Amino acid sequence: MSKFGTLVMGPAGAGKTTFCNALIQHLRLNKRSCFYVNLDPAAEDFSYEPDLDIKDLISLEDVMEEMSLGPNGGLIYCFEFLLQNLEFLTEKLDPITEEYLIILDLPGQIELYTHIPVIPTLVKHLTRFGGLNISLCAAYLLESTFVIDRAKFFAGTLSAMSAMIMLEIPHVNILSKMDLVKGSVPKRQLKRFLEPDATLLEDDDAASVREERAVDPSETGSVMGGNSFKRLNKAVAQLIDDFSMVSFLQLDVQDEDSVGGILSYVDDAIQYHEAQEPREPNDEIPDYGDNMME
């Protein structure tokens, strides 16, 4: 039996849980069912109570206290523990039918997606390689305010590309919090970020030449604006351009059409609608949890 889901991920502060809330609300308004899974062992406040919560298995607070680990080491330990207890996920996800969209909300530690094989191993368990046979699409969120600092934008884009390569599943990249940059970034210029353009850094170079002045080489601003830093940024931008894998969609969670547009891309990536069978208006969808959203 086919299942469908999306992995919501990205760096801390990108608005992942906010996007999950908006997605759940949109699904409910359109009478679609979903199963919400929280995989962030540090998350506390939820607008919609998760149907499955990793904190019922292990919490970051307990790990940090008992193992004397910091937040980053604690998160890695939590996921390694989850991988040793995958039946925690299997028991709840296995009965879910194709009518549901499984939303998996992940933490914001990007090392989990890009540097160590924790999330890739989890993805293999969730997909057909592990038996659950969930058609997954990754939704990678990057905060739109990164476009103000182009070096930061290309660093975030590189992380998104690294996640795409590591996970090897359909991928949707999203510039979140678009309401924060509306009016401050011209639409024509914004298009160059949606399809990352390496020449954006050349514009920065031209501006820096005009503003060049004598500074103390030991100052942080001088280091971050030095020639070595510029060459590194150009190399990162060129790498992204050479792969030509990353493009972004725009998301404003306050705009219902924007959320619906993102969902349509996710549905297309996982071929959700192709698997649905026509139902009579009075057909009931089975309930798999006390907090199931319908």
Number of helices: 13
Return the string of H and E elements: EHEEHHHEHHEHEHHHHEHH
Give the DSSP E fraction (strand runs of 2 or more residues).
5-15%
Shape: globular
- In total, the number of strands is 7
Share of helical residues: 40-55%
pLDDT averaged residue by residue: 87
Distance between the termini: 20 Å
* Low-confidence spans: 209-214
Class derived from helix and strand content: alpha/beta
Strand ordering within the main sheet: 3-2-4-1-5-6-7
Radius of gyration: 21 Å
Which SSEs are present, and which pair or pack?
Elements (H helix, E strand, L loop, with lengths): L2 E7 L6 H14 L3 E6 L13 E2 L6 H8 L3 H14 L2 H7 L6 E6 L5 H4 L3 H9 L7 E10 L6 H18 L3 E6 L10 H8 L5 H11 L9 H5 L2 H17 L4 E3 L5 H15 L1 H4 L19
The gist of it:
The protein has 294 residues and is an alpha/beta fold. It has helices at 16-29, 60-67, 71-84, 87-93, 111-114, 118-126, 150-167, 187-194, 200-210, 220-224, 227-243, 256-270, 272-275, and strands at residues 3-9, 33-38, 52-53, 100-105, 134-143, 171-176, 248-250. The chain is built from 13 helices and seven strands.
